[in-house]
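Forum > Structural Biology > Help requests

Title: Can anyone predict the 3D structure of YheO-like PAS domain protein?

Hi all, first post here. I have the sequence for YheO-like PAS domain protein but no way to get a structure on my laptop. I'd be grateful if someone could post the structure tokens.
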Amino acid sequence: MNDNRQFLEKFFPIASFIAAIIGPKCEVVVHDISDPERSIIFIENGHISGRKVGDASTDLVLKLLKAEAYREEQFIANYKASGKLGQSFRSSTFFIKNDEHELVGLMCLNIDISHMEVAAEWIQHVLQGGSLLPPSSIEPPQEDKQTKEYLQGNADDLLQHMITSVLSKIKIPADRLSSQEKIELVRELNEQGVFLLKGGVSQVAISLSISEPTVYRYLQKLK
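Reply #1:
Sure, ran it for you. Structure tokens for YheO-like PAS domain protein below:
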């Protein structure tokens, strides 16, 4: 067992403590960033997202690692996430750093607010005093419309989700894109942290109808 793992285990009781306070709708996860494909080393209330120990990081975790956002911040709080079953979460991430101020892990809280959103719509409907508009027509705040994290377990599913999310922005088949357009897609995928996962180069090559050496060549050009 390495030193980082022993250091991170100190946060397991804290994760259990937080989950016990907030309740069964709060999932608390401890990630070991040294292995993005199996980063979850502790989880409370994993039934909420369907994840377990040994599952992968999320798209947001990889993006944070790539952007090194943790260097200037101690945590990020109250952003929107979604689950693979369509749940809505209000999430927060604490950056766990060692004595040398190096990032070694993350503690993530994911509160399932799906039922809260339904209740909030009903309350707004009542407060409107008999409005003919159904509750589902009430617009949420603009900041809540964008999902910033997708909670899944399998590393292959994570990789496919990230690639699909980027490629869904283009309107023509990948095999009809110019070299420059493909380079830009590789740049965006790289910024998202796709290539931190094993198999990232291979899956991107297949998705863009190019060879793996071409992906490496594009990455070299982007440095």
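The CA atoms of residues 159 and 194 lie 7 Å apart. The chain is about 40% helix and 20% strand.
Shout if anything looks off.
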